[in-house]
Design a protein that fits this description.
Length: 449
């Protein structure tokens, strides 16, 4: 939509209607130190074609993921998205109002959400899934709050292997509540003792699988310890493709599983939008945030779809609402469903196996570089390395970017206050990573290290 500015008369009428003297009175609650005192040095307006040329020149300064060796992960992953996904997204069957309250005109939307829920439940090994949430981080926060409701406890224990964005989002959500979120120190070596910290006050333990540093651990002992103390195990999955190869969290005793669905159906797109998956045990369904689409029969016996459960503050009394999440990420959920449907169970397994094989191939090449150390632990398609001589990983990434190589993510970007992680670099290899890409990375590292 084009920008339609208000006239001075429009502004005066609106200010008079709400009873304030001028626009500045609308910002009295913003501290003076946080306000912009000087005018912005904005350039003069230009014509549409001139603006398009300027933006094109700016875009040309970017190093495109599709035109460079790419090893960036750390929570978002570059996968090949079939062209059919974008084409099918525009079909009329999936066009509906903002929220599918009217099933008689929203059958296409309700059906794909029903199928999305089925896929999410099967992928995570859980019994029931909702119709999606905003992204993995907000789903993680909602899971922690849900666990506190279920257990009627306040203490939330966050693993040091949990993605920092998930940790921070959970901390923000519970900050002004009676809940206490305790975040452990980053754990690149996988040595933290979560089991020893679980007690009768613990509402839940939140872990990532594979974790932020790429490690995969057996969650059964932790699940048993949680259940012995009456706590829940919440598992966050940042890379859902991994679930095509490794055992599902549900099979290992998880009570709530959340995930970021970006890897299937969606490009990186400078970090968004994302897609939150949320699944749990059937016995906890009444405490689950979001909505559930169900299958039914109409009066003529034909299959149809409806909103079966919608535990929202708009529908019930505020104190009984399970969440302030008022929608689902419908378009992203549709893209996820289409991509996973095109792959099928066998195709997902093959894709996951290919990702792991390429990561193993990359690790083998990196081990030939003197002084570079691959951190221990099993992994899927991402792992951490420690650079020789305490070399600054952030500086190295910038050096290789200048050479046209996107060489992973420095851990210090997420942990600026942890000098011991200054030399730790996260590297991911997906099906988009070629042998030539790996050789270019190894050659460049050999030269600069």
């Amino acid at each position: 939509m084009r920008y339609l500015p208000h006239t001075d008369a429009d502004r005066r009428a609106m200010l008079a209607a709400i009873g304030v003297r001028d626009v500045d009175q609308l910002f009295v609650d913003v501290p003076a130190a946080a306000r912009q005192s000087a005018s912005f040095a904005l350039p003069a307006g230009q014509g549409e074609m001139a603006v398009e040329r300027a933006f094109t020149r700016m875009a040309g300064r970017n190093l495109s993921a599709g035109c460079a060796p790419f090893f960036i992960g750390a929570g978002l992953y570059r996968h090949h998205v079939p062209a059919a996904v974008d084409q099918l997204l525009s079909r009329g069957e999936f066009l509906t109002a903002y929220t599918p309250y009217q099933p008689e005109v929203s059958q296409g939307t309700l059906q794909y959400l029903f199928e999305f829920q089925t896929q999410a439940a099967l992928l995570t090994g859980m019994e029931v899934a909702n119709a999606s949430m905003y992204d993995g981080a907000t789903a993680c926060a909602e899971a922690a709050v849900m666990a506190a409701r279920v257990t009627r406890r306040r203490r939330i224990l966050l693993s040091g292997g949990l993605h920092p964005h998930y940790r921070d989002t959970t901390g923000t959500v519970v900050r002004y509540t009676e809940l206490d979120a305790e975040a452990l120190a980053p754990d690149p070596l996988g040595v933290e003792d979560l089991i020893g910290r679980v007690d009768s006050r613990t509402a839940c333990v939140v872990v990532q699988y594979p974790d932020f540093f790429g490690s995969i651990r057996d969650l059964r002992p932790l699940a048993d310890a949680c259940h012995a103390e009456g706590a829940l195990l919440v598992v966050a999955v940042a890379e859902p493709v991994a679930l095509g190869l490794i055992e599902s969290p549900g099979a290992m005793g998880a009570d709530i599983v959340v995930a970021e669905g970006q890897s299937l159906g969606m490009g990186l797109q400078f970090g968004g939008p994302g897609l939150g998956l949320f699944a749990t045990r059937d016995k906890f369904v009444r405490q689950m945030p979001g909505r559930i689409v169900g299958q039914t029969l109409d009066q003529d016996g034909r299959r149809g779809f409806v909103l079966t459960l919608s535990t929202r503050e708009q529908h019930i009394r505020r104190e009984k609402a399970t969440s302030n999440i008022c929608t689902n990420s419908g378009l992203c959920a549709l893209a996820f469903t289409m991509h996973l449907t095109l792959l099928g169970e066998t195709g997902l397994g093959r894709l996951a196996a290919l990702n792991h094989a390429l990561a193993v191939r990359l690790e083998g090449k990196l081990r030939a570089i003197g002084g570079l150390k691959v951190l221990p632990g099993a992994y899927f398609n991402e792992f951490a390395v420690a650079l020789p001589g305490g070399r600054d990983a952030a500086e190295l990434v910038e050096t290789l970017a200048a050479r046209g190589i996107l060489a992973g993510v420095p851990a210090s970007r997420f942990y600026p206050g942890w000098p011991e992680l200054r030399s730790v670099l996260l590297l991911a290899a997906t099906e988009t990573c070629s042998e030539a890409d790996m050789d270019a990375l190894v050659s460049a590292l050999t030269e600069v290290l």
